[in-house]
Amino acid sequence: MDAAQPAGEVAAAEAGGPGQCPGPCPSSGYHSVTVTQKTEIAHCAWCGRAFARSGSQGRRARYCRRSHRQRAFEARCLAARMGLASGEALVDADALCRLRDGLYVLESALDDVEVDLRGRPGPEDYRRAFQHLYAAAAPLRDACVEPAAVLTPPAAEAG
């Protein structure tokens, strides 16, 4: 092994492999090895947001951050103490009401746009319709109703 050669490249240099010379490359003395990790997109079991789940060893991550794992644990404990059935959740009534209000505004905007775009709409009509829908949908972008207590079904806990 060459003292200047990084240890991670030793196995590749000694092994050769398809398309590689058995020893160091004549031009530089090093072998180039590219290592890629498979990254999978998962959704947090607590907040539902997407996160990159990488690595293949150990248990697969279910949460985007440790604080969400802790919140889920606390919510499961509270759900068990309250006697919630599997799949039931306890949420804040005000947060749920705000979400329902936002969905109603979006539904009304969709109805408005359907009426506005009947007939032969022009480019300006489509622009106004998009702006109206965007204004109704934008407040829902970060809407999140986090459960105070939840007892997940056994099949969902295994994932």
Write a concise synopsis of the structure shown.
Helix content is 42%, strand content 11%.
Task: Describe, in plain words, how this protein is organized in 3D.
The structure is a single chain. This protein starts with 9 loop residues before the first helix and ends with a helix. With 159 residues, it is α+β, with helices and mostly antiparallel strands. A hairpin with a 6-residue loop joins strand 1 (39-43) and strand 2 (50-54). The protein has two domains: 1-35, no CATH class; 63-157, no CATH class. Helix 3 (93-116) runs antiparallel to helix 4. Residues 1-16 have low confidence and may be disordered. It is 42% helix and 11% strand. It contains five helices and four strands; from the N terminus they run αββαβααβα. Strands 1-2 form a two-stranded antiparallel ribbon. The chain has helices at residues 10-15, 66-82, 93-116, 123-137, 154-157; strands at 39-43, 50-54, 89-91, 147-150.
